[in-house]
Design brief:
The protein has 2 domains: 2-60; 66-156, no CATH class. The chain is built from 7 helices and no strands. It has helices at 2-7, 9-33, 53-60, 66-97, 103-114, 122-135, 144-156. α4 crosses α7 (144-156).
């Protein structure tokens, strides 16, 4: 037991401190959500009162379609994830098992594109999608399938 205390206890203490430090912002948001003021400014880290008024407003106010937002987000995220896995699986199979002209260049291009975070392209993809929507709105970029498609394009471009 003393060997464990000498060698491993500090690792557990550091791990617990890091977990508490990283979970602290989440704790503040949850505590603020139960505050009746609806503000992120807290007078203490231990709540003095608990109110469900914010949650009641969120789920019962007709001007806040929260459930619709959640359903739309789940539909778009799920469809983009499924489509990305299907395309990624097919391309991985092609690059790993098939011999074709341009294979080496394709792998190098894919590696080069993946070296940059996708967030760098988000503004360019947004401008392109907005211009396409203004030029040809019948394509449907302002709809759910259009959003799924543009999200998938942003993921792979």
């Amino acid at each position: 037991m003393s060997k464990w205390l000498r060698q491993d206890l500090w690792r557990h203490v550091v791990g617990i401190v890091i977990c508490l430090f990283s979970l602290f912002p989440l704790y503040l948001v949850v505590i603020s959500s139960f505050s009746s003021s609806g503000s992120l400014q807290l007078s203490s880290f231990i709540p003095q009162e608990i109110s469900f008024a914010n949650y009641s407003k969120l789920f019962n106010d007709p001007t806040i379609p929260y459930i619709t937002w959640v359903k739309n987000s789940l539909f778009i995220a799920g469809s983009v994830a499924i489509f990305s896995v299907m395309i990624g699986t097919a391309s991985a199979f092609a690059f790993s098992r098939l011999k074709f002209k341009g294979r080496k260049f394709g792998i190098q291009l894919l590696l080069l594109v993946q070296m940059f975070p996708a967030i760098l392209a988000i503004s360019a993809v947004y401008v392109i999608m907005e211009r396409v929507y203004n030029f040809a709105p019948e394509i449907g970029l302002g709809t759910q399938p259009g959003l799924c498609w543009s999200t998938w394009v942003e993921r792979w471009v």
